[in-house]
Amino acid sequence: MKVSLIMTMTVDGFIARDSGTDAELVSAYAPLFFEDTTQLIGTVIVGSNTFSLLKEPFPGRLTIVMSSVPQPERNISGIVEFHSGELKDLLAELETRGLHEVAVVGGSQLNASFLVDNLIDELYVIVAPRLFGQGISLASNYDLETELRLLEERQLGSDAVLLHYEVVK
Ligand SMILES: NC(=O)c1ccc[n+]([C@@H]2O[C@H](COP(=O)([O-])OP(=O)(O)OC[C@H]3O[C@@H](n4cnc5c(N)ncnc54)[C@H](OP(=O)(O)O)[C@@H]3O)[C@@H](O)[C@H]2O)c1
Q1: Where are the domains of the chain?
Q2: Where does the Bacterial bifunctional deaminase-reductase C-terminal domain lie (predicted)?
Q3: Sorting pLDDT into bands at 50, 70 and 90, what band is 142?
Q4: How far apart are CA 118 and CA 113, in angstroms?
Q5: I need a surface site. Which of 4, 18, 34, 39 has the fewest CB within 10 A?
Q6: Ligand 1 center to 36 CA (angstroms)
Q7: Strand order in the sheet with 62-66
Q8: Measured between alpha carbons, how far is 54 from 61 in angstroms, rounded to an integer?
Q9: Among residues 130, 124, 132, which one has the least CA distance to residue 101?
Q10: Using an 8 Å Cβ cutoff, are 67 and 82 in contact?
Q11: What is d(CA 65, CA 155) in angstroms, rounded to the nearest whole number?
């Protein structure tokens, strides 16, 4: 299973102003990379806070919502599925369903839980030409020792930059 983390971040390193504000960066810059890439991958995993802000699953992609609270009654099979428990068990289950690639798409707590378990293979950061001054980081609530190797960098649109890394394992 290939697991890619895809995040849009300000130049000063924030993915949002706080956990209750919607993903203004994603909506502003999605057409440049996020939309096409997640459509190709086909399956996205989000944290429950981010899903509460989105309200709807990502159209055309299986949306998996991670929560510590089991909520099977909210599942619409193949469209939006709620999972709790170990991330590695989720990935193994998806493999048995013939899925070989997923995109982890935030927020900060979900990203960190994948990173601390060393489950991310590649990281795509879309650096948006914005400064927030304060906010929430790409991964929070854990001490990480993640080392990255740059695979690609390129300009997106007029002012954004894509940084593509692999996680050194
Ligand atoms: N810039 C971007 O690209 C981008 C992308 C996405 C989101 N965001 C922003 O990120 C912010 C939200 O981030 P956040 O860190 O507050 O919340 P989050 O990561 O979206 O959600 C956190 C919640 O997800 C569940 N969760 C996370 N990891 C889990 C795991 N390993 N197992 C089980 N459940 C898990 C827990 O839900 P329960 O409490 O239900 O147990 C946890 O409280 C928003 O402001 C959003 O706009 C930005």
Answers
A1: 2-167
A2: 2-162
A3: confident
A4: 9
A5: 18
A6: 22
A7: 80-83, 62-66, 43-47, 101-104, 2-10, 122-128, 160-167, 148-156
A8: 14
A9: 124
A10: yes
A11: 31
Residues lining ligand 1, Cβ inside 6 A = 7-8, 15-16, 19, 21-23, 25-26, 47-50, 53, 66-69, 84, 87, 105-110, 113, 136
Cis peptide bond upstream of 42, omega within 30: no
Residue 58: per-residue pLDDT: 96
Identify the residue whose tokens are 């890439």.
37
Q: What's the distance, Cα to Cα, between the start and end of the chain in Å? A: 15
The span from the CA of 103 to the CA of 53, in Å, is 18
Predicted pLDDT at 25: 87
Which tens digit of pLDDT belongs to each residue from 88-126?
999 999 999 999 999 999 999 999 999 999 999 999 999
Homologous superfamily (CATH) for 2-167: Dihydrofolate Reductase, subunit A (3.40.430.10)
